[in-house]
Amino acid sequence: MNHIITLTLLSSIILLASGNISGGGFGSEYAWVSWSEAKTIASQQNKPIMLILHKSWCGACKRLKPLVAGSKAMLNLSDQFVMVNSEDEEEPSSDPTFMLDGGYIPRIIFLDSEGNVRPEFANKARGDKYKYFYPSSDEIIISMENVLKNINSKVEL
Predict the structure, then answer these.
(1) For burial by CB atoms within 10 Å, which of 34, 52, 58, 119 has the most?
(2) How far apart are alpha carbons 132 and 81 in whole angstroms?
(3) What is the pLDDT of residue 53?
(4) pTM (2 decimals)?
(5) Virtual CA dihedral for 18, 151, 80, 64, nearest 10 degrees?
(6) Exposed/middle/buried for residue 152 (C-beta within 10 Å: 0-12, 13-18, 19+)
């Protein structure tokens, strides 16, 4: 019995230490990394960063999660990005740098491989308000492709 408890605790510790395994509902197949690792990885691999800022209680976030998780096209493109999924109070959710046109959620922000926010890569389907809100994976894919065409990365589209 003690062995089972020990193994269960050890498994829990390993899962917690390994980061956002499940993707917070956005898909466990994606190679999610923490914000603290993202800039280093992006610089080393010369890849842009895609940052998703969301909250566990948010209705729009809950609607977007299965769309992202189920998108094979988006999953394929994600290999060319450093993917960050910041839920609730995880870094950098409260950083004003990422409140380009407000603090609404979910927001998807693209950064270059040096960690510079690239505000020009907003959702082109949106008007002047909520430019970093994406209600569908198709709109995210358009922005991802636009980023890859316009930011120097090792892997070409």
Answers:
(1) 52
(2) 17
(3) 93
(4) 0.81
(5) 70
(6) exposed
Token digits for 34? 């923490």
Characterize the bridge pairing of strands 82-87 and 49-54: parallel
DSSP state of 107: E
What is the C-alpha to C-alpha distance for residues 143 and 122, in angstroms, rounded to an integer?
Answer: 7
- pLDDT one-digit tens code per residue, 120-148: 999 998 877 899 999 999 999 999 999 99
Which residues make Cβ contacts (< 8 Å) with residue 108, sequence separation at least 6?
A: 50, 51, 52, 53, 123, 132, 133, 134, 140, 143
Burial 54-76 (b: 16+ CB within 10 A, else e): bbeebeebeebbebbbebeebbe
Host H or E run for residue 43: helix 35-45
Tell me how far apart the alpha carbons of residues 116 and 110 are, in angstroms, rounded to a whole number: 9
Beta-strand pair 107-111/49-54: antiparallel
